[in-house]
Design brief:
Endonuclease III, domain 1; single chain; 12 helices; 2% strand
């Protein structure tokens, strides 16, 4: 009985698989509400960098990204020069795509504008879910949508504010990652834990 209970507690969302990097990310971070502007900017950047690639590729480069982009402090990234961009294009530790690198810098500038207007990136982003996580009740991965009305609205507004690499599917993945949406399956041991945050 006890062994069966323990097995159920460790039942994970299937996408986590067996890769230790993925499992750690799933168990410790994915879906936990984030309210820190630096961390939110980091996730916007990483989700955008992931476009056309696998998420595990980005997770494995995450520490390199933190070093390359000044700890994701938007005020620092916003001042990156053309020379800095050229340097980043030779950095094998990140995705060496000029558009993605330039978008990170322009997104940092857009973050600063959002902070001026709303007080924080956190306040701006979380208004799209009424300040509280949307808690879904999916039992199977095939039920989890690639987008939502909220991600559509967020994507549209971010683009209007000059953000790039923020299509609705990227926005939905971002919302899942930072806990604006709890899309852990109901069979996953993290589903109820994340709801307590």
């Amino acid at each position: 009985m006890q062994a069966g209970k323990k097995a159920r507690e460790r039942s994970r969302c299937p996408w986590a698989g067996n890769d230790p990097v993925y499992v750690s990310y799933h168990d410790d971070q994915w879906g936990v509400p984030v309210h820190n502007d630096t961390e939110l900017f980091e996730m916007i950047t990483l989700e955008g960098a992931q476009a056309g690639l696998s998420w595990i590729t980005i997770l494995r480069k995450r520490e390199n990204y933190r070093t390359a982009f000044g700890g994701f402090r938007p005020e620092k990234v916003a001042r990156f020069s053309e020379a800095r961009i050229r340097g980043l294009l030779t950095n094998a530790g990140i995705v060496r795509n000029r558009l993605k690198i330039e978008s990170t810098i322009s997104n940092a500038r857009a973050v600063l504008e959002v902070q001026k207007q709303f007080g924080s990136l956190d306040a701006y982003l979380w208004q799209f879910v009424g300040g509280r996580p949307i808690v879904n009740r999916w039992r199977e991965m095939k039920q989890v949508p690639p987008r939502s009305a909220e991600s559509d609205a967020l994507s549209k507004d971010l683009r209007k504010r000059g953000f790039h690499f923020v299509g609705t599917t990227i926005c939905y993945a971002f919302m899942q990652a930072v806990g604006m949406v709890n899309d852990h399956l109901t069979t996953c041991f993290r589903y109820k834990q994340v709801r307590k945050h």
